[in-house]
From TrEMBL:
It holds the Pfam family NUDIX. One of its GO terms (cellular component) is nucleus. The lineage of its organism: Eukaryota, Viridiplantae, Streptophyta, Embryophyta, Tracheophyta. SUPFAM superfamilies: Nudix. Belongs to the Nudix hydrolase family. CDD domains: NUDIX_DIPP2_like_Nudt4. Its cofactor is Mg(2+). It comes from Linum tenue. Residues 1-94 form the Nudix hydrolase domain. GO terms for molecular function: metal ion binding; pyrophosphatase activity. Keywords: Hydrolase, Magnesium, Metal-binding. This is Nudix hydrolase domain-containing protein.
Length: 103
């Protein structure tokens, strides 16, 4: 997904979570820097990942017919990433969680 001109990147992330995964929640932390990828069909794409504390799973959502929602341990999610920057973001989130447990 992408973000619209009239929204922040965080607002876009919350909207995309609803549209693509059918979940609502609160953003906990940004887990990646804005990544630029020149392999996008549209040209240069910017992407960012956020950790979302899921409060609600929707039974129906806009992209349900083209996507499957599944819950994975972070280690399995890392293995299923299509891009290294996504792996790095999940590893950053794991570190963030570990630091939160200590404090």
């Amino acid at each position: 997904g992408g973000w619209e001109n009239d929204e922040t990147v965080k607002e876009a992330a919350v909207r995309e979570a609803i549209e693509e995964a059918g979940v609502r929640g609160d953003i906990l932390v940004r887990v990646s820097k804005t990544h630029q990828d020149d392999s996008c069909p549209e040209g240069l794409c910017k992407a960012a990942m956020f950790a979302l504390y899921v409060k609600e799973e929707l039974q129906s959502w806009p992209e349900k017919s083209t996507r499957t929602r599944s819950w994975l341990p972070i280690s399995e999610a890392v293995e299923s990433c299509r891009h290294k920057w996504m792996e790095d973001a999940l590893k950053h989130f794991t570190k963030w969680l570990e630091d939160k447990d200590v404090n």
